[in-house]
């Protein structure tokens, strides 16, 4: 177990809890430790692959059900543990959903590198809990530990025809790259797939046969909240091959706080698998990132169809 996970585990009074809720767990070590206690374990990390691994290991998962609805009517004592989410909106979603679920006692212990912790995190947790304090540090890591749940409820953020559940990228606003991508789409889409849909901003207002997919549960819930069909899976793994005439892709390029241009590879492979013969992929990317070579390795014809000061849209077939 890495130092951060060990600190989080030691900061949480797991022994006295009826249930352990594992929030953000990129290594899987907190999940393993929780399962070893024999207690009821609920895994609420929004990542599809991590959630499926947790389900296979014996945990319950919130999956693509809103967390406040999944936990509503709970009782007994609970300890929630995990890595501190990067997004304050995701932190608020976790805190309000768990504090407001109905447990008699709640302790939440979330940890991170000291340089990634901020007073605004204390403030957000303080809206859902009576007591919020920092743990003793261990190396360069520390936890924020909250207890004493308040009577709170979670309400998604709404705006500009969008709904933001949890930490969905761009919140309830369209992002600039996605807007350029949407403007570059053809008038006739045929069977259309929004791959890695985020909050659904690219597909909002589109007519016809529209499907969305994302591996992040918050994104799926946000997209469904504006009336779009959306699957929660790994790069469209539940969709039928060669079944879409047009695919739009606005891929992530950050792994945590680090730029990682390789994140697009898995999505490009999936796009090639899901495109019907004669179909086209429309991809937007930050112009300084070298995505075109990755696209050309998978598609015979690639051309630039839109560009502004920050973003480029490619069409591939």
What do these coordinates show?
It comes from Corynebacterium liangguodongii. Keywords: Cytoplasm, Methyltransferase, rRNA processing, Transferase. GO terms for molecular function: N-methyltransferase activity; nucleic acid binding; S-adenosylmethionine-dependent methyltransferase activity. One of its GO terms (biological process) is rRNA processing. InterPro entries: DNA_methylase_N6_adenine_CS, RsmC/RlmG, SAM-dependent_MTases_sf, Small_mtfrase_dom. α5 runs parallel beside α6. The strands form four sheets. A seven-stranded mixed β-sheet has the order 3-2-1-4-5-7-6, sandwiched between helices. It is elongated, with a radius of gyration of 21 Å. The chain is of the alpha/beta class. It has two domains: 3-149, Vaccinia Virus protein VP39 (Rossmann fold, 3-Layer(aba) Sandwich), CATH 3.40.50; 157-316, Rossmann fold (3-Layer(aba) Sandwich). Helix content is 27%, strand content 29%. The N and C termini lie far apart (45 Å). β11 (210-214), α8 (217-224) and β12 (230-232) form a beta-alpha-beta unit.
């Amino acid at each position: 177990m890495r130092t951060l996970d060990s600190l989080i585990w030691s900061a949480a009074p797991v022994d006295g809890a009826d249930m352990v809720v594992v929030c953000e767990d990129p290594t899987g070590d907190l999940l393993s430790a929780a399962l070893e206690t024999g207690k009821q374990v609920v895994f609420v990390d929004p990542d599809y692959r991590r959630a499926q691994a947790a389900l296979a290991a014996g945990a319950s998962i919130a999956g693509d059900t809103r967390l406040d609805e999944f936990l509503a009517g709970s009782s007994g004592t609970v300890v929630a543990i995990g890595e501190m989410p990067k997004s304050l909106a995701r932190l608020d979603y976790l805190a309000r959903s768990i504090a407001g679920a109905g447990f008699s006692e709640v302790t939440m212990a979330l940890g991170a590198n000291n340089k990634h912790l901020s007073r605004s995190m204390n403030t957000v947790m303080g809206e859902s809990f009576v007591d919020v304090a920092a743990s003793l540090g261990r190396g360069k890591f520390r936890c924020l530990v909250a207890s004493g749940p308040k009577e709170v409820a979670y309400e998604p953020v709404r705006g500009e025809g969008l709904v933001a559940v949890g930490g969905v990228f761009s919140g309830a606003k369209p992002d600039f790259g996605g807007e350029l991508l949407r403007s570059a789409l053809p008038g006739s889409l045929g069977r259309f797939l929004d791959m890695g849909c985020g909050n659904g901003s690219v597909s909002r207002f589109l007519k016809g046969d529209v499907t969305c997919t994302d591996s992040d549960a918050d994104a799926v819930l946000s997209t469904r909240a504006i009336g779009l069909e959306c699957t929660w899976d790994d790069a469209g793994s539940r969709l039928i091959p060669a079944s879409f005439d047009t695919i739009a892709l606005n891929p992530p390029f950050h792994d945590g706080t680090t730029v990682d241009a390789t994140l697009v590879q898995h999505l490009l492979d999936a796009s090639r698998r899901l495109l019907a013969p004669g179909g086209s992929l429309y991809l937007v990317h930050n112009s300084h990132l070298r995505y075109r070579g990755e696209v050309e390795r998978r598609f015979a014809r690639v051309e630039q169809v839109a560009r502004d000061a920050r973003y480029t849209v490619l069409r591939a077939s």
